[in-house]
Fold each of these.
Amino acid sequence: MQYRPSQEELLLAIAEFIEGDVRKELSDPALSFRCLIAANLARMCVFERRMEEWHDGLELDGVRGLLDDLPAALPPTKEARADLLGEINARLARALRKGFVSIDDAAPYLRDVLKGRLAVTNPRFDADFGWETP
Amino acid sequence: MISDFHAAYEAIEAVVASHLGEGAHVHGLKPLHGGACQDNLRVDVRFPDGSEHRMVVRSDAPSSIPGTLDRSREYNILTAATAAGVRTPAARWLTHGLLRPNAWAYFLDWSDGVAIGRKVLKTDELADARRRLPLQLAEQAARIHAITPTSEPGSSITAVDVPSDGDAVLEGLRILRELIRRLERVSPATELIYRWLAENPAPSRDLTLVHGDFRTGNFMVGPDGLENLLDWEFSRWSSPFEDLAWLSVRDWRFGRLTSPIGGFAQREPFYAAYTEASGRAVDLSDIHWWEINGNLRWALGCAFQAQRYSEGQRDLELIAIGRRSAEMEYEALRLIERGVAGL
């Protein structure tokens, strides 16, 4: 189904409305701050939609060196992908807790996954800070 | 927040009158934002002698992050800290059921100044204050950390148990494990960070009182620097290095990443001032361990804030914080990878 305007346009319009029209009418600083949060959450949903398939693929491919018995490709629907990655996360967490996967092996993978997640949740987060010796 | 303002007003006036006598009146009441785990109200009180006193009523919120003290316990610790000369507003009139059933509340003397992290770091008028803060905070931390379970006034603290094995590092791990157990989500990064902490314990195991949330945002700052330390709800017996490291957790630098002490100073002069004031040398291995611990604790705290929202405490800020765990997990992985050199 192709709706117009798109979901993305609608979410961005909500963000703009809350941050602009609503916020400028408010004198309560706490409420005004929550308007910024609300607008950011709407934008975060846009970033997540744009990047979710790519992220899901990255998570599955990256974990292949750490866990066995993984499917060859991601399932087609969003729900099935979420279920699969949830299960993989739980398996990897358990394997780390029990010491079946080493810290050195898992750390680069988790760093990449988190870096991808940060690009969605906080695009202003400087993910390169402090990794190299100055 | 408080839903029935009129009832709150009457309840507060009744407590004030019971302590000060008939001539006392409350004539101003305003909710204060900032504390996510408790309700704070500003109250203006006219004492029977006609003098005006601005105070804060601090009450338990409907829910909080696990491990936080209720107001009754916080009051006990504040009283000990004040007796030890720590700069924090005096607390009085502990009451039960003041603003909501079964919630503890007490009154605090008002403190002037700015606490909001970004304002403390950016306001031009506070430039001198920021220069004074490292030394002032080092002195205050030393005073808090001079309180031990066996010394006065530490022995008057009944609010928090002394870990039976007397080991700050094992206690720090137990707290993290319990938070992980109570959380509804699983995170491989959390498990990796926890395992690293368990396999690479910090050298120092000693216990002192800690503030538990010793960071920019909980320091009331005026033109002369530190006015008061606020928010003791995470206070407990732990390693003094937990407080020192928490101040440097990346999120508490409020974007000023190259100023690792709270976003306003460098590490070396702060640690030197602390050693001078406390007589305790600062080993960077301890700081490194507790900074990783702090990042993990705050990552878990973020997840709990979102859980509070889904359990019914409808504050948009709570659910928004839930997604921020990744920032702290990422920083903890960086510190593990880089070692002490990454500080």
Amino acid sequence: MSTVSERREAVRSQPPARYERMVEIRIFEDRVKQLFAEGLVRGTTHTAQGQEAVALGVASVLEPSDYVSCTYRGHHHALALGLTPETVMAEIMGRSAGSMNGLGGSMHLSDPAMGLLPTMAIVGAGIPIAAGAALTAQVQESGAVAVGLFGDGAANIGAFHEGLNLASVWKLPVVFICENNLYGEYTPIAVSTAVTDIASRAASYDMPGVVVDGQDLDTVIGEIETAVTRARAGEGPTLLEMKTYRYSGHSRADLATYRPDGELEQWEQRDPIQIYEDKLVEQGLMQPGDGADLHELYRAKIDEIATGLIDAPAPEPSDMFRNIYA
Amino acid sequence: MAKLRTRQAISAAIRDEMLRDPNVVLLGEDVGDAAGVFKTSEGLLEEFGPTRVRDTPISEMGFLGAAVGAAATGLRPIVEIMFIEFLGVALDQLVTEAAKLHYLSGGGYKVPLVVRASAGAGLGFGAQHSQSFENWMFGAPGLKLAVVSGPRTAYGLLRAAVADDNPVVILEPRVLYADREEVETGGSGILQLGKAERLAEGDDVTIVALGSMTKVARVAAEAGRWSADVIDLLSLIPWDRQTVLDSVRKTGRLVIVEESPYTGGWGTEIASYVAAEAFGGLKAPITRISCPDVPVPFAEDLERRFLPSPEYVVAQVTELLETGKKPQPWWVQEGLA
């Protein structure tokens, strides 16, 4: 098992590793969904099949010393940033081997070494927190940047407005990334949001706002690089809107019956993994057939992890009394 | 030692912490140029500059949230919430984010955050700027909460809070900002969070008070024809169970004086604990002296009536001692509620 920092370094430096990680995330998320459907895991979960390129974009551009604040739909970010599928799966399953000893669950992942702040299960809460991490970088002149990830649903909560305004007036080194997957829980964006492009709201905060094809990893990386460079140079925040799509429903229980016929299939035609595979093959960095082999490899690997965890030990009662106060 | 007003003691504590640690920053509405609407940050912008002393937009959720993120990543922010009521729009960041980040990172992140807020009645600010709301912080493990009772405790508690690695809320009764007393500054003036102080010693009754009611209780104890242990609780989360319990085991009677509505006031927690732990040793019912369950009235006479006064505390304690029964609050005695 490679270490967390090796996993991170791999996606930062090697395009094929980015592809491989997206495959890992896709298969991981499918397996998580299945575990919940089988009743083997309790509570709820929010998977991100279809949004893998956004996660790899962030993990590829940022340094481990930068900060990331993301949401309860965060498995893809945690895995992209380097957390291992073993510890993330164990956490989701409430096992003591989890990244938080099973005390957090699917919605709560974290790793200070990779700059991953605890994922937030309150819509919008992570936006001002990302601004605050950027404030630390600014005050300490550390050169670090913060990325605040949130969904399109969060663009309507007060924390979005307050966080973006504050970041702009203080010129904080932060990049706000909206993963616009077109649905806030069960509600399509057009019903809840006055604008089609969340990025257009950047004008209110006097910061650049960019609509990005969130399914094309190279485009995602390019836009994040531009925004991060701007932030590191002290020029202030950027709002990036990644147009993407959530293949699954909002959460475990949501079968997404509200989606118009054909919408999912249309988005699957622009699958981020396939798009990247085609590019790597074209560039000679992958051979045709490598992709299918990798999928097979990860299906076996993730299955082995999940199966192995079914009878893994739960945390001890004493664990719930730890880490409440520092 | 210096004779300071509460607001000056607060400025002094912030200054001393900013001198001690370059990661201490002050954020809040009008804390910079204006030095705070209650003048609790005088001279700080001039001394430490706008990077560390920041005027914020009027957006508590935004700047308190930013302080949470900053605290988790290496700063030690002090956030001023001008009126405790304004914390309402940012409560999520305090009770669900700040209080949980250490736990939700398996101990990986610490949140050394201080939230200061003015609180309480007595200045004619009306129903939306005179509340206390200590009880907002109950039921959110991960937070600490302390309440200032004058210049000396303002200095001592604030310095302890900034040095603490957890989110700490410090409530500052507005009515005390102009009070003046000798304050020992420097390291020896730092108080311990979670520790109560016994301000007077007596045998007949234990009076537990907090914040602005500490002075009321002390004046009452001096005027009463009985002798009382007067305890300034100072911290509510955690609260000093041992000091209170030891005193009640000695006196056999407990009176709690609260500046908050009766229902759900912080005294309920103290009363239920002591009732259970010292049951056999109680000579009289535990008595809570509080405000009535009404919004804080504006008219001066009514606001004065709303708050427990020393005379009222004397009357209530005297009746308890003479009858052995819990006295009715004034609004019940007068048939008003």
